[in-house]
Every structure is written in C-alpha cells, then in structure tokens.
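Colleagues,

Please find the record for the two-part complex below.
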Amino acid sequence: MTQSDAASAHALEFWFEFGSNYSYLSVMRIEALAAQYAVPILWRPFLLGPIFKKFGWDNSPFVLQKEKGMYTWIDMTRQCEKYGLPWTRPTHFPRSALLPMRVALLGVDQPWIGAFCKRIMQLNFAADREIDNPEVVGEVLTELGLSPHHMIEAACSEPSKLRLRENTQTAMQLGIFGAPTFFVGTGMFWGNDRLEDALIFAARSRQGKLSTPSE
Amino acid sequence: MTQSDAASAHALEFWFEFGSNYSYLSVMRIEALAAQYAVPILWRPFLLGPIFKKFGWDNSPFVLQKEKGMYTWIDMTRQCEKYGLPWTRPTHFPRSALLPMRVALLGVDQPWIGAFCKRIMQLNFAADREIDNPEVVGEVLTELGLSPHHMIEAACSEPSKLRLRENTQTAMQLGIFGAPTFFVGTGMFWGNDRLEDALIFAARSRQGKLSTPSE
C-alpha cells in the first residue's frame, strides 16, 4: 500500500451529481462536517443518467415514481429547514449539468472545489436557475476569481469529457445506484442521511490505523 | 373536530409490514422513543406487496434492484450495530407475513401490540425464522399470555382478512410507497431515518395546540 492509498483509505470519497437534490444537501454540509471529524474529502463528480439507464429508467425515480416524487419535495423542504439551507423546488427537474460537472472535475484537487460546487447547487436548488450553460458557469467562475474562458475551454476538451465518462464508469463498477454516495475505503454509504455515519467510520478507521503498534 | 380527531392529529400513525427490514428497525425503537416525546402511537399494519404490484414490481425493490439490495444488507448491519439491535440477514426475503399481520390488526388498540410486533420482527430479522404459520405465531401469543387458538381463529376470519385489505387500500390512497411510513395528521414521513423527525413534528404540533388561547 502506497502512502497515498493509506491516506485515501481514511478519506471520504464523495460521489455526487449537480442535478441530484439529495446531493445538494451533502454538498452544502460536507466541508464543515468533514473538518469537524478531520477527514479529507475526495470529490468524485459523476453522471446519474447513465446509471439510471442501466436500470432501465429513462429519468429520475422521483419523476418515474409519482408517489415517491411527491414525497421527495416535502422531505426536501423539511430537510432544508432542519439544516438551515435555502430551498426552492426547481421548476425543471432533474436539471442537466454536463458543463458544471466537467468544470468540477478540473477542480477536484483545487482549493476552489467546495465553493464552486456549493454555488452551482445553490443556483439549481435555491435560485431555480438552469446550470448547464457557459454564461451561468462563467458567472460562478468569475465570482471565484477564476478565468471563465480558460476553464470552460478546458472543460469542453475531449480529455475532460472522457474523464467524466470514466468517473461515471467507475461509479457503475463500484455498484453506485444513487447520489450522493460516500466511500471510505471499500465501505459504501448511500444518501445524505448517512454522511455523518460515513465520517464517523472514516475517523474511527484513521484512529484504529494510528493506534496499531506498527505505525 | 372531535376529541378523538384532535388526539390523533398529534399522534404518530405507524404504517409497517413484518416482511420489511427497515420496519424492523422502527418496530424495535418506536415505543421507547414515542414515550420520550410523549406521543401516542397508532399502529397501522398493511401489506407492501399490493403497493409494489401497483408500481409494476413483482417483488421488493431490494430483490429487483441488485445494487441497492446488496447495499441494503450492509446498511442493515451498520444500523443494527448503531441501535444495539440483533441482526441476522434473513435466508428468505421478503418473508410472507399474512397471519402475523392479521393478528397485529386484532391488537392495534391492545396493550400487547408493541411486544407482539417486536417478537415477530425478532423472529424474522434476528432468529431467521419463518413467521407466516400458526405454530410460530401461536408460540409468540402464548409467551404474551394470550390464547393462541382463539386469536388465530379470529385472525383467519373473513372480517379480519377484509380489515387487512382495507388497511392496505388506505395506505395506497394515502400515497404510501414503502415501509415504514409515519403520518402526523396529513404529514407523511418515510423511512426509519425519519422516525425522530416525525416524533418531533408530532410533539411540536401538540405544544402548538396546547398553547393556543382557545384551549
């Protein structure tokens, strides 16, 4: 095991999608919580659409399953109230998010990743705005002091598109079936409701590791 | 509004199924938690099968959707550890539970309802035993000091069978799509993860009611 493998075994892999409402809750909460547990975050943007297609669904289960969909919006209102987050039910759901997902992939190891993801999520789920266009993404990048022209060009390059497809492929291979999903080593935790459990698991793994005599 | 309506508007309706693993978690936790919040429980046994059939599914989504199913057993192991509950993955899932569901319906207003439901759930999810037969249900009733012969006869009567069908019909009309589901008045809360939220909501509704000047 390399030093990097050892580090990531106690980190939290965060698999998310900008179109996913429950990913919104986790994107808004994860940085403060992970800091509290002293667990590093590994950002893993991926596309939910191809995963749902594999199950034979041509849309979100919240759209395909009327009863569950109706409940989801009530649940989101309550959850946002609980967490003190702004909430507007999107007039268009799920929103396409290809461009911001590709930009996020450029930033996974950059200090601006958290702020970028939060801002895109707020546009979708609090401001009820479309997020899959260069104007909106450019606006966010400018706010963060980044170069919109350069970043959007890089995001639309073939290697960048390929990278998002590869991440989505990896998500499938890992058995991911929804978002958000967290991994600590090989341990999967599904849904915003399990974010705290995943962080506790990661923090305990690290402590266990540190306390072994061989360290 | 009658006194009984007013009371039930601040009570917790608990919709559950003995075959449902997440209902197991709630059955084991609900009495102690509801007592803590001083919220009365209204027990509402219903059948999940006809609800799933309405969605075009001939089995539990945990069986039909391989990835989600695999995750569910990992999640159950963790959740049971978190709550300090015994857990054995059932060798047969989901288990048929017609007879114990009908017996539970006879007991919804009786002091033994909680103990009966817990015991049936433990047989399914801790002892890995079949639960849909007169021997096992009779065993549980005897342990509770009830007459197995009399109770099972009553449970198998036509009015009793009809009552379970009616409860399931009501569940469909309420938009229930899984178990456990909780209602506080018209407010739906889905899943064991929302039990605490539902109780807090019920307790707050009651306090609001009590503090109005007209009371």
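Chain A is about 55% helix and 10% strand.

Comments are welcome before we finalize the supplementary table.
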